[in-house]
Design goal:
The protein is α+β, with helices and mostly antiparallel strands. It contains 15 helices and six strands. The strands form two sheets. A four-stranded antiparallel sheet has the order 1-2-3-4.
Amino acid sequence: MRLRDFPLLLIAAGGCASVRDTWEYRAGIGFVNEATREHVSAETLLAQGVQWLEEKSYPAAIDAFTAVVNALGNPALRERALFLRGRAFTEGGDPHSAYLDFDRLTREFRDSDRVLSAREQMMACALRMAREGHPENFLFISVSTSSAGVKRLREALARFPAEEFSDDYRLELALFFIERGDLVEAESELTLLTEEERYRRTNSAPRALLLLARIALQRFDGVSYDVQPLSDARRYYEKFLGDYGRFADDPAALAALRLDPELLERMVREARAGLRFVTEKLAEKELEVAKFYLHRGRPESARRHIDAVQTSYPDTAAASEARALASSLEP
């Protein structure tokens, strides 16, 4: 149960953080301690809550901030208390309640200077919920699942798709799916990063292209089977090199993309190596088809594939073998 739903239990100002007294807000007076009858202002209680937050006394800090949030009056104090309570929930290990507070702030205090930070905290809390799991009830049994966190993160990304940190969290969501082995969901998030204009101008887009290529190669079972994953990987590698490979010699473009030069260099090396691997395997496949036709006694059909290896993949090991086969077919 959440403290916000029940009578506020607050620590008396100046008291021990482990002892809670009941406080009641009274208009024109402030927060009154029902046991001692002392009263403090919202500013004093908020300051005490900040101190407890710094001391990691999270329940006490949450109580103090909740009192200010629920009190009528100064919107600026209520807005600050709501943000601080979100922080206390976050640091205290309750990202779900923190998400709700940051979400509430973005809706109730849209002109606040803390809105941008609250939006980012929403995404961070949702991602944490996905990774750590969030309790859900199924048939009266509480189980921890990642679905609530994934849903919350997608909702936040849908509401705030164009913030400078939005692409980072979409990429993190894709990585979460990859770690979990859910490649279809990962591809969905990565494709958005590579195709939507707002994301293509971020430093997450080139990384997404390489991740898509890796996923495609994971699906490749060998040249004896479907080689569509190879074609997909080649497309991603070529797009990466075409769109971003040239940035290595363009400091201004690197700065605009906020991409580290050393990281880009490593990514370019990966793309080139991946493209070489894919090209070799596609050439092997073409040569395998040629050998199949030769085995079936259909040299003319074989020749078309032998020529394709030499024309499309001239610098591969398969091309050398194709030239030898071509010579053997000469009359």
